[in-house]
Write a structure and sequence with these properties.
The complex is a heterodimer of chains A (110) and B (119). Chain A has 110 residues and is mainly beta. Helix content of chain A is 0%, strand content 45%. Chain B has no helices and eleven strands. Classes of the chains: A mainly beta (110), B mainly beta (119).
Chain lengths: 110, 119
């Protein structure tokens, strides 16, 4: 059972903005950076956001991250069909002494 | 080009053992923490273990402590996961991944290797 909670699904039409939340606690999100990963069907996860709101090179600026207190969020603006994927937040949990992933959110482009 | 290639997966009976390997190339392996992440069929990602650049520190998820051992050989640019006393709930695709800083971004991922624990 994950300590980071995400909505199981989110959807939007092409061009819309979709936001995914990630809820944690003081021992994880409240203390450490948040990271986001995109997993396209049948493939390995790919890094999307690091240190709350930074994008690795090659990630479009349509993807943005933010963090406030013990929650974080990922926003996808200008939604495109190729954004259909599962999205996971992640961070380190000081109480567990381990990395934790969110429950995952499946994004569907209608 | 960065490559992480896992191997060693397969079908094993409950209580059995398996050793996964991950061969790294295209980056300075000895400068990276390395991690194993698994994904049960149709489920989300679960962090399994990670190991410091020089192998001096290791961390494990509670569910595998005492059963799994992570190790590395920097001379061979290789990461390993020795899995003993395997259970049905260990069935998953196992990914190796590299993190430049402790607890940081998992920059590089392999394609994964499937472990199936079943009688």
């Amino acid at each position: 059972q994950s300590v980071l909670t995400q909505p199981p699904s989110a959807s939007g039409t092409p061009g819309q903005r979709v936001t995914i939340s990630c809820s944690g606690s003081s021992s994880n999100i409240g203390t450490n950076y948040v990271y986001w990963y995109q997993q396209l069907p049948g493939t390995a996860p790919k890094p999307l956001i690091y240190r709350n709101n930074q994008r690795p090179s090659g990630v479009p600026d349509r993807f943005s991250g933010s963090k406030s207190g013990t929650s974080a969020s990922l926003a996808i603006s200008g939604l495109r069909s190729e954004d259909e994927a599962d999205y996971y937040c992640a961070t380190w949990d000081d109480s567990l002494s381990g990395r934790v992933f969110g429950t995952g959110t499946k994004v569907t482009v209608l | 080009e960065v490559q992480l290639v896992e191997s060693g997966g397969g079908l094993v009976q409950p209580g059995g053992s398996l050793r996964l390997s991950c061969a790294a190339s295209g980056f300075t392996f000895s400068s990276y923490w390395m991690t194993w992440v698994r994904q049960a069929p149709g489920k989300g990602l679960e962090w399994v273990a990670n190991i410091k650049e020089d192998g001096s520190e290791k961390y494990y998820v509670d569910s595998v402590k005492g059963r799994f051992t992570i190790s590395r050989d920097n001379a061979k640019n290789s990461l390993y996961l020795q899995m003993n006393s395997l259970r049905a709930e260990d069935t998953a695709v196992y990914y190796c991944a590299g993190e430049y800083s402790f607890g940081g971004l998992l920059d590089y991922w392999g394609q994964g290797t499937l472990v199936t624990v079943s009688s």
